[in-house]
Design brief:
The protein contains ten helices and no strands. The protein is mostly helical. Helix 5 runs parallel beside helix 8, helix 7 packs across helix 8 and helix 8 runs antiparallel to helix 9.
């Protein structure tokens, strides 16, 4: 019975991805996707689906995570900054395809459904946040990043341009473009960047050294 149940579960996840994908039987938008449609495609009953998931959004999130985490790993290469660069590159590469459109639809759904937002944050973002902030904290300890900022702020600055391009399609998500975006974000948190100063006017804040001065130092 356990084997049969796991087989049904995998069929449901695959059916969901197939319906949301670019090729037949898709594409079906997240808004038009239904539990009935998933059950029909998977060859199971609606009750079988509700045995594992409380809602359509929960099925979609599981289907997304089933493939996404494996395709966009946060694998320690020895250098925390290089690991971050590789992770962001893999993320952008995946988001440039059909999975990116699914993520965009999930984000849109989160704006209207607090339960979906909470589940997406818990199931997806929190795990990524922990892995990435550990790398950022290590980079701070090793002197590769300034230590007067919060690791969460650095993580958000790295992810933000990728998600902005995904949602607004302002530019490509290819390897070269992503590398530039990551370099720009990291430059603001580098050891030679101007320190964070709160409560002072702009004229009172210390200025970052010019690039030419950094090279000659």
């Amino acid at each position: 019975m356990a084997v049969r149940s796991e087989s049904s579960r995998e069929a449901i996840l695959r059916a969901t991805i197939d319906l949301l994908g670019d090729q037949p039987p898709g594409p079906v938008s997240l808004q038009k996707l239904s539990i009935e449609g998933i059950a029909r495609q998977a060859g199971v009953s609606k009750m079988t689906i509700y045995r594992w998931w409380p809602s359509k959004a929960a099925v979609v999130i599981d289907s997304f995570l089933d493939n996404h985490v494996a395709q966009t790993p946060v694998e320690d290469t020895g250098s925390p900054l290089e690991t971050l660069r590789q992770h962001m590159a893999s993320l952008a590469s995946v988001y440039a395809g059909p999975e990116g459109r699914l993520v965009a639809q999930l984000i849109a759904e989160c704006q209207f459904d607090p339960a979906t937002l909470q589940e997406f944050k818990q199931r997806f973002w929190q795990g990524r946040r922990e892995a990435v902030t550990q790398l950022i904290e290590r980079a701070m300890r090793e002197g590769d990043l300034r230590s007067d900022v919060e690791p969460d702020e650095v993580a958000e600055a790295l992810y933000a341009p990728i998600y902005f391009r995904l949602l607004f399609q302002t530019g490509p998500l290819d390897a070269e473009s992503t590398e530039r975006l990551v370099d720009v974000a990291l430059a603001g948190f580098g050891p030679n960047a101007a320190p964070r100063v709160i409560g002072k006017s702009k004229s009172e804040r210390p200025q970052a050294r010019p690039r030419s001065a950094r090279k000659s130092a």
